[in-house]
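Dear colleagues,

As part of the handover before I leave the project, I'm documenting each prediction I ran so the next person doesn't have to rerun anything. This entry is a single chain, and its sequence is reproduced below.
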Amino acid sequence: MTQDIIDDVTRERYDAAGFGRPVGLGSKPALLIIDVQYRTTGTTPAPFDRAIEEFTTSCGDVAWDAVANIRRLLELFRSKGWPVLYPYVAPKKAFDAGALGAKVPGIMDIPDQGYEFHPDIAPLEGEILLPKRHPSAFFGTPLLSYLVQAGVDSLVVTGCSTSGCVRGSAVDAFSYNYKVAVPSDAVYDRSPLVHEVNLFDMGQKYADVSTTAELLGSLQAIGA
């Protein structure tokens, strides 16, 4: 994570108040891969200014960097037989506009290809797909029911965007008393500043935030 975006005074205040202590992982984690579709990654790596010419919701080449790390986590989860779930944005219809469509009209005009999963992390048969209309992967979906059925006690939350669907899902997971891990380099956003501020805030209140490499070490140790 970039350290210089969050000022020292902010860090000192949170530390003095006792925020940001680690929670750790349980014995049965699940992986959430949120909205890693061409609509947020683009079909090829490109800087943000070029990427939004293809899909206005694209986050640019930072998405491809994150996808590479999500793939590392995905390979471990599959090898361990742990649950993998895909909350994703389904193709928008006119009746889906609602408040979000009014706020961000461009989301209503994404071509069908934009809704395809990025091939490097595309779901396999048996992995759970969860179409959603709102930021949190829990809102209006059966995600919680699947987690209970699988005996999950902790969640690794990856995907897009750090400030939106990732954050909303992490907060709701925390609210359901799950242990939450957010790998800082396996989530992405269109703004580096917004990305870092939200990582900091989640790490202080709702989740353990680390790099993918650090998290892989912790995951590999489960059951060892």
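Residues 88 and 188 are 15 Å apart (CA to CA). The radius of gyration is 17 Å.

All the best with the project,
I.
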